[in-house]
Amino acid sequence: MIFCILLIAVFWGFGTVAACSTLQVLNAITPGSTYQRVANLTYGTDPRQKLDVYTPLNLIGPAPVVVFLYGGNWNSGERNYYQFVGEALASRGMVAVLADYRLFPHVRYPGFIEDSAQAVAWTLQEVQRYGGDPRRVYLMGHSAGAYNAAMVALDPRWLAAYDLGPTRTYKGTLLISQLTCL
Predict the structure, then answer these.
(1) 3-class DSSP assignment, residue 76
(2) Measured between alpha carbons, how far is 179 from 87 in angstroms, rounded to an integer?
C-alpha cells in the first residue's frame, strides 16, 4: 500500500517540499536496510549505459526481477532519482534493475529503445548472478520509460538483436504514465 502511495505521489507530482524534489523526498523516506545495491554495472559502451541492481538481503531462492525504465521526455533523468523504486521492490522480495539510457540530444530515436532492449538483454543474461530468476523478469516503465518498455515488449526485433528468442524473454509489463489534458 505504501509503495502504491509513493508511486502516485511521484507520478502525479506533489510538487516540492523545502526546495527538495518529490523524488528526493521519496528516496529519503524509503527504508534502506532491506536490500543490497550493486551500482554502476555496465551493459554497453556508452557512459550512460549503466544500471544498478537491488537485491533483497534475506533472499531465499531465485527471486522475480523487475527492470525499471524511468521517464523524462527522453532528454532528462537518471536511475539514482528512482532509488526508492529499487528499494521498495527489493524490500518486497524482488530483484530490481534500474537502468540509465542515452538521452536526447546525444542520441535520437530509436537509440532510447535500443538501450532499453540492451539493458533487458543484460538482465536476462546476468541477473541470476544477483539472485534473480531469469525466467521471471518483468518490465516496468514510467512515462517515456513506459514507451521504451512497451516497444521492447511488443516488437520482437529489439530483443532479437541480442539473440533472445521467444523462449528467453520477459514475463510481463507494468506501464505507468500520468494523465494529462491535451
Answers:
(1) coil
(2) 25
Range picked from 5-14, 134-143, 169-178 for highest mean pLDDT: 134-143
Residue 71, all three cell numbers: 521517464
In degrees, to the nearest 5, what angle opens at C-alpha 112 toward C-alphas 110 and 113? 70
Ranges of each domain in the chain? 32-176
The DSSP line for the chain is -HHHHHHHHHHHT---BTTB-HHHHHHHHS--SSEEEEEEEESSSSTT-EEEEEEETT--SPEEEEEEE--STTTS--GGGGHHHHHHHHHTT-EEEEE----TTTS-TTHHHHHHHHHHHHHHHHGGGGTEEEEEEEEEEETHHHHHHHHHHH-THHHHTTT--TTSS-SEEEEE------
Residues 29 and 89: beta-carbon distance below 8 Å:
no
Q: By C-alpha distance, which of 31, 94, 84, 30 is closest to 59?
A: 94
d(CA 6, CA 26): 7
CB atoms within 10 A of CB 178: 12
Higher pLDDT, 13 or 114: 114
Give the SS3 label for residue 148: helix
Q: Which pTM does this prediction carry?
A: 0.82
Of 47 and 9, which is predicted with more confidence?
Answer: 47
Class of domain 32-176: alpha beta
